[in-house]
Amino acid sequence: MKLKLLFLPLTLLIISSCATDKKTLPNFMLSGAVEGDYVGYIYLKYNEVIDSTLVVDNKFYFEGNVDHPVEAFLKQKLDEAGPSFYFAQENIELTVTPKNGRFYLTEISGSKTMLLVESALEDLGAILEEELNPNEKLYAALKNLIEENPDNPFVGEIFVELVTDAHRLTLDQSN
After folding, report:
1. Is residue 130 part of a domain?
2. In a shared domain, residues 73 and 50
3. Which residue positions in the chain have pLDDT lower than 70?
4. Could you tell me the residue range of the domain that residue 53 belongs to?
């Protein structure tokens, strides 16, 4: 009887510890290739995270978790500049080229977030080129972009850039 009483709490303890030990699966995977000859590490920086991996046979791989779209940087050295790009919970393939101590992003695929960035830049650029007085159309396009993508840091950067350009958005429009 005493053995049964001891067995039940021990079983419950084991089951509960197994349930809490489950690891969170990564929600993004970034695989890439380095063009040309490169030997060394590549660093990925996003939010407050800095990750690194050794480039082997001109290939590299990162995985992790993000809650929302983030701006990221690929670097040869932590204190050097690197190309920026945006990603969210997605599988991305990149190609970079090393030149003069930094990487240059030559190709990216699989990122819906980057497609949004490219599309937004094209749309806003077209408004600026085609309109004699583009402010109202810029405001409408930016408002729509913010409403559809409230967590995307790129949208915030575009907003700040347009607000700080005194000839683009009024103070009332920025509120």
Report:
1. yes
2. yes
3. 1-23, 165-175
4. 28-109
